[in-house]
Amino acid sequence: MAGPDPVPDGRLLGRRAFFGVLGLGVSGLLWGNQAASLVVRSAVPLGEGWRIYAVNPPFPHFDPATWRLTIDGLVERPQHLTHAELLALPAARQVSDFHCVTGWSVLGVEWQGVRFDDLLARAGVSPQAKALTFVSAEKPYVDTLTIEQFRDAPDAMLALEMDGRPLTREHGAPARVVMPKMYGYKGVKWVRKIIVTDEVTDGYWEQRGYDRDAYVGHSNGL
Ligand SMILES: Nc1nc2c(c(=O)[nH]1)N[C@H]1C(S)=C(S)[C@@H](COP(=O)(O)O)O[C@H]1N2
Ligand SMILES: [Mo]
Questions:
Q1: Which of 18, 28, 103, 184 could cross-link 35 (Cys pair, CB 3.0–4.6 Å)?
Q2: Residues, CB within 5 angstroms of ligand 2 (ion)
Q3: Measured on CA atoms in the order 121, 84, 132, 150, is the torsion positive or negative?
Q4: pLDDT string in tens for the chain (222-residue length)
Q5: pTM higher than 0.90, yes or no?
Q6: What's the order of all strands across the beta sheet hosting 191-197?
Q7: Ligand 1 centre from 6 Cα, in Å?
């Protein structure tokens, strides 16, 4: 089964990184302390930093003049928000660690964006609604999170900024889902549409075998 990276690159990189460190470790035995400190230093850049993932390159292009975020499904007033309208909503900020299910993490990421309650307020969510399906401009990437999962996640948001700057194109400009307690594959990049639904359906990686409830440390990814 394929893993949530542009497989198999991530895994190969992981394995290479492992053997790379191991290789230096063996030399460390021969060279003493100096080589041992090299082992530590070489392990750090391999273990940190973002790996940019996409399932269907090239990355979607963001044009602020024409971009719209659609919110439809079980709502009273379907929305087509402009980028400016999105920026005018109440801003939320949080710092959290990011974990990809394949084993890499980025610690202390600062996210700024819009909480889902604030985003959905003007659409008027129907009482039958159970979940939100996020549709990426990058087809066919989708994912669904339940309203209950959002209720337990005050740090969840539609992020517009990362580390103090607008999201870059490769990180999902202008908007991506951030759900820190779950693995990265739940965080749809290049979000273009949110469907409010009473059905919980499988996302892109769930159709390929990963858990819907992707809580870090409690899903089949680990
Ligand atoms: N549209 C889209 N969103 C996506 C993905 C993808 O391939 N396409 N990969 C997911 C996975 S598995 C991870 S770990 C993160 C990686 O985020 P990054 O590319 O900003 O590092 O994006 C998630 N969101
Ligand atoms: Mo991932």
A1: 28
A2: 4, 100, 184-185
A3: negative
A4: 334 544 333 333 333 333 333 333 333 233 333 433 333 333 444 446 999 999 999 999 999 999 999 999 999 999 999 999 999 999 999 999 999 999 999 999 999 999 999 999 999 999 999 999 999 999 999 999 999 999 999 999 999 999 999 999 999 999 999 999 999 999 999 999 999 999 999 999 999 999 998 999 888 876
A5: no
A6: 79-81, 69-73, 191-197, 131-136, 142-146
A7: 9
Cα of 160 vs centre of ligand 1, distance in Å, is 15
Provide the token pair at 74: 């079980």
Cross-strand bridge partners of residue 119 = none
Tokens standing for 194? 């949110």
Please name each of the domains of the chain with its CATH number: 11-208 (3.90.420.10)
Q: How distant, in Å, are the alpha carbons of 61, 75, 130, 144, 158 from that of 201?
A: 27, 18, 11, 6, 20
For residue 51, which atom of ligand 1 is closest to its CA?
21
Cα R_g (the chain), whole angstroms: 19
Tracing tokens 């394949």 back to the chain, one arrives at: 102
Cis, peptide link before residue 8, omega less than 30° from 0: yes
